[in-house]
DNA sequence: CACAATCGACAACCCCATTGTCTATTAAGG
DNA sequence: CCTTAATAGACAATGGGGTTGTCGATTGTG
């Protein structure tokens, strides 16, 4: 393909920083899930990872809904799916008879551990190519620029609107 | 909150690189859309930006669907929405009577230009805080690590599964 | 000991994306 | 040419996933 007569307006220099961050993120996540798929977790999606992070050490369906930015009913549906695949379980809350605590099963913890390991491996691979110094500089810089922002888990709603 | 007796398994060092990239991306995108909202484009969502990128200099609904990783019907719906808000228009394809070309209106180009400008400004702000050298190093590193990946626009389907 | 608030479950609804089908148009091959 | 396959976009029917609304049970508050 050649040059088009009617070209789009050129983006100014430096406006592709968000895209670069997104591409980097996607590259890592894709590699992580490729590894997970090989390890028998083919159905595990990036969104599940976020849900796992939101679950943390255990939450109620209502709280999970709040963290994910969806209704508690929607969170319940998500949980059902993860429960069916054996990643999470619901146990009675000893301190509140209304609540059921959602927490990772050993299989869930296993996926998470594997994911963490792959991420660390990928980080090492990046460091290998970029040099440990540059790698650390990137991390430090990103930490600095995002220090005032809290980690939010409502990715789909946030992005899709 | 204190230390919980049952703590979650600790993520290994270096496994938070994806999260850092995501946080950085989100920080930038949030700031961009905050500015756009003030400029009268409150309904403009991150997903719309991706759609704009996928539209490029003009595409058919079918092609847009392929780029976004959704059916042409779904792409058509998205287009209707953007059309209603005056961001895109459909014009007949002079070379193919079946096709209608979707392209940005002047209003659409305006939002895009503004978004580009805000992104460049934010990049400058980052450079101010990190130093131009570090900023450039990050960009260069990300470019290097994502050079072999093509830019894909199927974000929602990719992430949500 | 009332009373408001919250938890999870159930039901009804809605939006959006999907598949399937249709006509019009284009491209390819004999 | 003329037939046949492929593609564009419109329309219809379906389904998944989200939403609101309601309910009984339980908790916390004054």
Describe the structure.
In chain A, helix 5 (106-130) crosses helix 6 (132-146). Chain A has seven helices and two strands; from the N terminus they run ααααββααα. In chain A, strand 1 and strand 2 form a beta hairpin. Chain A is globular and about 55 Å long. Chain A starts with 16 loop residues before the first helix and ends with a helix. Mean pLDDT of chain A is 93; it is low at 1-5. Chain A has a two-stranded antiparallel ribbon. The longest helix of chain A has 25 residues, at 106-130. By secondary structure, the first copy, chain A, is mainly α. At the A-B interface, helix 1, helix 2, helix 5, helix 6 and helix 7 of A face helix 1, helix 2, helix 5, helix 6 and helix 7 of B. The structure holds a DNA duplex (30 and 30 nucleotides).
Task: Give the topology, please.
The structure is a homodimer of 161-residue chains.
Chain A: H1 17-38, H2 46-55, H3 61-68, H4 72-84, E1 88-92, E2 100-104, H5 106-130, H6 132-146, H7 155-160
Antiparallel strand pairs in A: 1-2
The structure holds a DNA duplex (30 and 30 nucleotides).
Short description:
By secondary structure, chain A is mostly helical. Helices cover 61% and strands 6% of the residues of chain A. Among the domains of chain A are: 44-104, Winged helix-like DNA-binding domain superfamily/Winged helix DNA-binding domain (Arc Repressor Mutant, subunit A), CATH 1.10.10; 106-148.
